[in-house]
């Protein structure tokens, strides 16, 4: 009886070891949701990975270093988009700041610095438009030009576009990532931000396979 038990255990060991090597599969309803109806993407071309974020969101600030690492090895068929969260008040002002920086061609070089200024250096006092203009001025951006761009018709239009994207895709928290207008991904307590990226990879692969089907 003992020999039989040992034999069974020996047969089970490889299975147990391989199970430990396999990551947990992303869970529908927890790690991600399938949108009831596919929505238009924020931009065009490739497989879109769109992060709805805010410079005033601590979780977005914590997610950013992980995103930076992931983007360095991002496959060529993926297009990554930052979409400002437009939930009113300070959220809108932060969104205007992002879009103004984008319009002036300084978003990429200031992105991480803005998170640092908000959460480490505490440069934002009340989250007003003037607050953000001061912050960017401290990063070497012309304050008057930046303020004018934040209040411009073009930025107001892009802010409306970002608001509609969140409404259509059911985003109500940050950071949330939307894959190709079809899947909504959030971080969970047990899997964290790295688990969120694993879910993104899983869904991108799923979307890639679907696009290849005749």
Structure, explained:
- This protein has one domain (24-212): 3-Layer(aba) Sandwich (Glutaredoxin).
- The longest helix has 21 residues, at 192-212.
- Helix 3 runs antiparallel to helix 4, helix 3 (90-103) packs across helix 5 and helix 3 (90-103) crosses helix 6.
- The chain has helices at residues 2-21, 58-72, 90-103, 107-119, 129-138, 143-150, 153-169, 192-212; strands at 32-34, 47-53, 78-84, 176-179, 183-185.
- The chain has a five-stranded mixed β-sheet with strand order 1-5-4-2-3, sandwiched between helices.
- The protein has 214 residues and is α+β, with helices and mostly antiparallel strands.
What is the gist of this entry?
The chain is an alpha+beta fold and 214 residues long. Helices cover 55% and strands 11% of the residues.
């Amino acid at each position: 009886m003992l020999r039989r038990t040992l034999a069974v255990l020996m047969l089970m060991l490889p299975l147990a070891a391989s199970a430990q090597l396999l990551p947990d599969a992303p869970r529908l309803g927890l790690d991600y949701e399938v949108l009831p109806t596919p929505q238009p993407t924020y931009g065009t071309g490739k497989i879109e990975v769109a992060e709805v974020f805010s410079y005033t969101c601590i979780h977005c600030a914590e997610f950013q270093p992980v995103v930076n690492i992931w983007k360095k090895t991002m496959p060529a068929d993926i297009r990554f988009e930052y979409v400002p969260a437009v939930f009113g008040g300070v959220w809108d002002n932060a969104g205007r700041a992002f879009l103004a920086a984008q319009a002036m061609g300084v978003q990429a070089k200031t992105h991480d610095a803005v998170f640092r200024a908000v959460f480490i250096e505490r440069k934002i006092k009340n989250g007003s438009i003037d607050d953000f203009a001061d912050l960017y001025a401290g990063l070497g951006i012309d304050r008057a030009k930046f303020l004018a761009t934040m209040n411009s018709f073009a930025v107001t239009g892009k802010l409306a576009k970002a608001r509609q994207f969140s409404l259509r895709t059911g985003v109500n928290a940050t950071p949330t990532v939307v894959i190709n207008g079809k899947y909504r991904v959030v971080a969970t307590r047990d899997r964290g931000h790295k688990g969120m990226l694993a879910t993104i990879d899983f869904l991108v692969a799923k979307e890639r396979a679907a696009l290849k089907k005749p």
